[in-house]
Amino acid sequence: MPACPHAHKVVITRRLLGLDKVISLGTTGIFRDPKGWVFTEDEGEKDPVLGIHYLKEIYDRDCPDGDYKERPTVPVIADTVTGKGVNNDHFWIPIYFDTAWKPFHKAGAPDLYPEAFREEINELNHFIFERINNGVYDVGFARSQEAYEKAYHRFFEALDILEKRLEDRRFLLGDYITDSDIRLYPTLVRFDAVYFQVFHANKKKLIDYKNLWAYARELYQISEIKESTYFDIYKRHYQLSPHLKPLWGNIYSIKAKGPDVSVWEEPVDRGHLSAYPEEKFKKEQSGY
């Protein structure tokens, strides 16, 4: 589902490592019905590889009674032979792509999970997941004023921490893009377009953060990342989905005209923060 931030980091990692040559990508539509996500965008409304209409069918195949009772989620890796799901742990799938799938990486693939930095990356990943990726959802789905304000302050405090960190670092771990940057990007790229308005996370916009804004644009302007960034889809999903419209009272199903996303193309000059200004990635097997 192209609007899902958790799936987005998996899609980006797959593409950067060249795993798109060995792992096909099935994409559901952006609205779910009572049975969950549906492959509405494919011919005949069926995934062309697995031949299924509902994502739930992957989960059903692992159930003794053939009826999965919980909500099917994306992303999920499926075995194309059995049609069964083998992994839906979105937090760890990018790491598995970086490590277990290394024999299938393209030549010159970036080292997104360098051994010398894994402890720091793991710690930062948990911070990003809890305080940023899930943190903005804690704001948007708060069910009391107290819960909303607590989540609101906690989320923007985390953004301030990362804004400070990027004062003297081109990327979160320094000179090169790592797994941590890929995890932060999906929340940043959705922020001004949807979270600021729909989730009432409205203390500041991303464009109000000098370092985070330039950093996010630099990531966006990498072709393998830009190609899976869909601003209009984000707006349609978050603003028009039946389960999300009530969050901001969109009873007439109106999709906001703005913001102007052409600003994401503005030039970025953060190379001076790196010892290797011409390089954004460190290639595998060449040392970090």
UniProtKB/TrEMBL annotation:
Keywords associated with the record: Transferase
Gene Ontology molecular function, alphabetical: glutathione transferase activity
Pfam family, one: GST_C_2
UniProt-listed CDD domains: GST_C_Omega_like
Signal peptide (from-to): none
Site (Lowers pKa of active site Cys): 195, 238
Annotated positions binding glutathione: 37, 71-74
Superkingdom, natural source: Bacteria
GO CC terms: cytoplasm
InterPro entries in UniProt: Glutathione-S-Trfase_C-like, Glutathione-S-Trfase_C_sf, GST_Omega-like_C, GST_Omega/GSH
UniProt xrefs under PANTHER family: GLUTATHIONE S-TRANSFERASE OMEGA-LIKE 1-RELATED (PTHR32419:SF6), GLUTATHIONYL-HYDROQUINONE REDUCTASE (PTHR32419)
Protein name: Putative glutathione S-transferase
